[in-house]
Amino acid sequence: MTRKTPDQLRSARWFAPDDLRAFGHRSRAMQQGYAPEEWKGRPVIAILNTWSEAQPCHMHFKTRVDDVKRGILMAGGFPMELPALSLSESFLKPTTMLYRNMLAMDAEELLRGHPVDGVVLMGGCDKTTPGLLLGATSAGYPAIYLPAGPMLRGNWKGKTLGSGSDGWKYWDERRAGNISEKEWLEVEGGIARSYGTCMTMGTASTMTAIAESIGMSLPGASSIPAADAGHIRMASACGRRIVEMVWEDLTPAKIQTRKSFENAITVAMAMGCSTNAIIHLIAQARRAGQDIGLNDFEIASRKVPVIANVRPSGDTYLMEDFYYAGGLPGLMGRIKEHLHLDVMTVTGKTLGENIAGAEVYNSDVIRTVDDPIYAEGALAVLKGNLAPDGCVIKPSACDPRFLKHTGPALVFDDYPSMKKAVDDESLDVTADHVLILRNAGPQGGPGMPEWGMLPIPKKLVKQGVRDMVRISDARMSGTSYGACILHVAPESFIGGPLALVQNGDMITLDVDARTINLDISDAEMEKRRAAWVAPERNYERGYGWMFSKHIQQANEGCDFDFLRTDFGAPVKEPAI
Ligand code: FES
Ligand code: MG
């Protein structure tokens, strides 16, 4: 392997020349207290840190970044921490998905504009993983992903609590009058008891596992709990490794091939992944120049069963248990025959070399393919006259009786009216109804919020109903569960067929046949389409306006059209 020489470093363009510009850069570095020997001939390693005081999942990043710097310095690099948009799933409204592409742009431009040779990406909370990776993929410099790590298991009265999932579950019990206010407060205090990301198999754990299985993280990195000392050592290891990656010129383009995305899809299916994985993986693959689409998920879903017994697909365990059971390398070892083992990773070795000898220590947590928790992959893609460009369901997390279902539609045009109606105990609804929420897609939401797990009407909750069919163009949290059909494309806000459904229309879904249909004639559909009136736009200025002009539909990954790799000529390196 040929190694870069110090004069070939990108940062040398800023620091090395004997001219007035470089004088400015050097004198300003000295203003910061650095002596020339601290940067001369050394790779400058950016650390994109998504820490903020509004980001509980990344609370430890404020100091964990020092461990990354320690690794960089040890390996002879020069660290440069650059704060990036922190996208807190908990606090940011209307939805972090509105801003994933903003983080991607932030990351790409921070890297390109600064004297950067390589980068450690620090993220974990849902959209931060795809946001950072999309940006780093487009920037193209050597990059390694450091996942925040899941938080510790929740605890209440000696019972284990899982992020999101148990919030929804106990909220239904509270609505049914089975939990007191005092107990509810105890749940609030016990469900998130350390820093780190949601510890169910939500979007965070899904996306960090994807980052690792694509080859962008160190082996095992995504499973280490945030509060484990192993996480500190892994942070330092990321710092040491990225310096070497710069000398090796190991760029994302050499790692993110079609095969590595196929691996990520396979792993996601076996993990019982969040439905959000589909949108982010399509976007990331396309940034890497790989044409991945819904069909690739469908193929994987038919061949790989869910073997990670982690909630919400599993019924007992959480990410902490998954780590003790052998973590992602253990899981990948169990589905080896479905993976491309010859792909390159950030270690400079192949995936096969990375997971050689990986063991599973608890076969109830990480099952075998012959003893799965769900016989097919976690997600299924459905198509039909209601969703010509596809929609998604997570059959592993829903009541099996709904995998084939016909029922009358009960339609809501917006979230507030739906919320009000479901709490009205006189609502005319049965457990066989199909609840529909529209205007919740990328344009309509706006930003495609996680509204897809519509609450079960209160009247039915009291009767003991805990699942029913729900359809929307929204997303749902990876920690959610139930017979929720999501990401309907094209979305209703731009006139997709979901916009044309009327109360009482019969809807039929058949997950095994992968179909979803509105049982009306084509002629009736056309008649309704002709009478359809587009809703008012959500934004007339600002970022939201730009978003609404350029956002693509869910089946295309919700990237901005102008950020696509095939949009126009490649961006040039900045003049210095
Ligand atoms: Fe940050 Fe769930 S809220 S990962
Ligand atoms: Mg989430």
UniProtKB/TrEMBL annotation:
EC number: 4.2.1.9
Family: Belongs to the IlvD/Edd family.
Name assigned to this protein: Dihydroxy-acid dehydratase
UniProt cross-references to Pfam families, sorted A to Z: ILV_EDD_C, ILVD_EDD_N
Top enzyme class: lyase
Domain named Dihydroxy-acid/6-phosphogluconate dehydratase C-terminal: residues: 364-558
NCBIfam families: PRK06131.1, PRK13016.1, PRK13017.1
